[in-house]
Design a protein that fits this description.
The complex is a heterodimer of chains A (about 110) and B (about 120). By secondary structure, chain A is an all-beta fold. Chain A has no helices and eleven strands. The radius of gyration of chain A is 13 Å and the shape is globular.
Chain lengths: ~110, ~120
């Protein structure tokens, strides 16, 4: 089944403790992206990747890192999480020529205490 | 991107057709209409898109008016699992450049509630 898989689905952590949210897609998509969703603010893009080893900042990249060493994986790294990064996170992927059609993971709900 | 306007909420009886309208009066000739939905706290889900002809897939039908200033998403036999927020967006089909970013931004959408 074609899908985008995020892990973990839920995470509670403390300020400053490094964490990684994994994202994997099995559709051989070139384009991948991370979003966060907060009440009243909608979806906001954190980082995106056009292909392996090609990543760039979205609208709200501060406090996050990403890597794209393989086509299928696009992990989101929080080196030193803070409470303002408490949010619902979504990973998405898209084929290279139809990037307005994006396939989303189920989401990761992160709470930073 | 052209702006879209959707009603904030709608109800529909289970088993009936749900018709969700979207106005996009400033749409350009090369812009497509896309529909997504988001079931509570789940990832947004692509539904359908179209340019000017009516489109149908296994999930829904999309009816675009001849002047392309509005469209209607039709869920032919709504079920309780169709309760979600539905978003209509207007975008060019693909980025001008192969190196373009295509972040998705949704408006407030229509909260569709399917009534048993």
């Amino acid at each position: 089944e074609a899908q985008v898989t995020q892990n973990p689905r839920y995470l509670i952590t403390v300020t400053g403790k490094k964490l990684t949210v994994t994202c994997s897609q099995n559709m051989n998509h070139e384009y991948m992206s991370w979003y966060r969703q907060d009440p009243g603010l909608g979806l906001r893009q954190i980082y995106y990747s056009m292909n392996v080893e090609v990543t760039d900042k979205g609208d709200v990249p501060e406090g996050y890192k990403v890597s794209r060493k393989e086509k299928r994986n696009f992990p989101l790294i929080l080196e030193s999480p803070s409470p303002n990064q408490t949010s619902l996170y979504f990973c998405a992927s898209s084929p290279g020529v139809a990037r307005n059609i994006q396939y989303f993971g189920a989401g990761t709900r992160l709470s930073v205490l | 991107d052209a702006k879209t306007t959707q009603p904030p909420s709608m109800d529909c009886a289970e088993g009936r057709a749900a018709n969700l309208p979207c106005n996009h009066s400033t749409i350009s000739g090369n812009e497509y209409v896309y529909w997504y939905r988001q079931i509570h706290s789940q990832g947004p889900q692509y539904i359908i898109h179209g340019l000017k002809n009516n489109e149908t897939n296994e999930m829904a039908s999309l009816i675009i008016t001849e002047d392309r200033k509005s469209s209607t998403l039709i869920l032919p036999h709504a079920t309780l699992r169709d309760t979600a927020v539905y978003y209509c967006i207007v975008r060019v089909l693909s980025p001008i450049s192969n190196f373009g970013n295509e972040k998705l931004t949704f408006g407030t959408g229509t909260r569709l509630t399917i009534i048993p």
